[in-house]
Design goal:
single chain, about 250 residues, alpha+beta, Butyryl-CoA Dehydrogenase, subunit A, domain 3, five-stranded antiparallel beta sheet, two-stranded antiparallel sheet, 8 helices, 7 strands, elongated, disordered C terminus
């Protein structure tokens, strides 16, 4: 039997875990981790359509797509990169052209391509720090979701066995998942800072963090709070069970 206090802790922990999983999943699947605000003269340049076409159909090159993000109000995520450009070829004749968002996904091989000390210049040598930060920001959220999925399987087994003992493992897995989520955000921020140090941003371009990053950031403390509740319930129930056993033997 499980005390009502422990049952309440398990329910609250499960709800927090579910919310954290939803937030992290949405963050991974959206592109608003970092966004650039370009001045109107950059977005309304005569080569805006050409930049957008190269961005969508051109070869993958970090400097090329980064420059396009800077100039066309771009947004960047873990799996997506998007720009805003006029949707019609005769946009310059309209006082208020309609801006269309165009997105391109990072393929799996592109996630593992090396970064260079000078973006786009292979002769400058590989920048190992930026390369590993990029790989970590791609892999860590997947590892975090895997930990949560594994903890869910353990929780189901615990329910079927009517035992609270496996909850200790569930708490540890949630703690690791929270650390992975926090590591994802840290790796992304560090990678963006290093990119801006080696890239030249056009005049008037302003960058800011997007809501997708904040969702991933919120998921980390939620997972850690769920871990704390699971660990407390498992440890307290075990101590209480040990005391009851000793009392009955005495």
């Amino acid at each position: 039997m499980v005390d009502n206090r422990y049952a309440t802790a398990l329910v609250i922990g499960s709800v927090l875990s579910l919310l954290a999983t939803v937030y992290l999943s949405v963050a991974v699947g959206t592109q608003h981790w970092y966004q650039y605000r370009s001045p109107p003269d950059n977005r309304e340049a005569s080569n805006a359509s050409e930049l957008r076409e190269d961005f969508i159909n051109g070869e993958f090159d970090e400097k090329a797509y980064s420059d396009t993000l800077f100039r066309l109000n771009g947004t960047l995520g873990l799996w997506w990169r998007c720009v805003q450009a006029p949707g019609q070829s005769h946009w310059f004749k309209e006082p208020d052209p309609k801006m269309v968002t165009q997105c391109v996904s990072f393929t799996l091989p592109q996630q593992f391509l090396p970064k260079y000390k000078e973006p786009g210049n292979h002769n400058t040598g590989e920048d190992l720090l930026r390369t590993y930060l990029w790989m970590c920001q791609f892999l860590l959220p997947l590892v975090s979701l895997a930990f949560v999925f594994l903890s869910g399987l353990i929780g189901v087994c615990a329910c079927l066995c009517r035992s609270i003992t496996p909850t200790l493992g569930v708490g540890v897995l949630h703690l690791l998942a929270g650390l992975c989520s926090l590591g994802t955000v840290c790796c992304f921020l560090a990678g963006m800072d290093l990119l801006h140090r080696v890239s030249v941003l056009p005049d008037g371009v302003d960058g800011s963090l997007g809501w997708s990053l904040y969702l991933a950031l919120i998921s980390s403390p939620l997972q850690m709070m769920a871990a704390a509740l699971f660990l407390w319930a498992a440890r307290s129930h075990r101590q209480n069970y040990t005391r009851m056993t000793a009392y009955r033997v005495a």
